[in-house]
Amino acid sequence: MELAQVRLLVTDFAACYRFYAEVLGLKPQSGAAEGPYEKFSPATGSAGIALQDRSMMAEVLGELGDTATGHRSLVVLRVDDLDAYCEQIATRGAVLLHGPAPMTDRMRVAHLKDPEGNLVELQEWLLLRG
């Protein structure tokens, strides 16, 4: 078994597409900026984050037609230099909610939200610094 992707169900597909592609800098698989589906990949690793229009999945699972509330997910991305990455994405419109700051003695983190309110945690693993 292999993790292929984490899929986020979104209502404003275009805004979320711009966030993951332009703000976070992940690579879109096909360039389907208007949806209803797109997978984004980081520069390394094989798993990715996918967006799917919530109404499309509501056709399969009716309960998804209800408005989503609260924090529904936490996407975690590891970066090599948290401070530099946070500076880069801030210039592209990201608004940090917290950090960069230590979370444990082994990692530093920063948090932000995508346009749908999904939490994104950026991690820098201190043990990998050498």
UniProtKB/TrEMBL annotation:
Domain VOC intervals: 2-125
Domain of life: Bacteria
Sorted UniProt keywords: Metal-binding
PROSITE patterns given in the database record: VOC
Metal-binding found in the keyword field: yes
Record's keyword annotation contains Metal-binding: yes
PANTHER family referenced in this protein's UniProt entry, alphabetically: METHYLMALONYL-COA EPIMERASE, RING-CLEAVING DIOXYGENASE-RELATED
Protein name stated in the entry: VOC family protein
Species, as recorded: Streptomyces coacervatus
Taxonomic lineage: Bacteria, Bacillati, Actinomycetota, Actinomycetes, Kitasatosporales
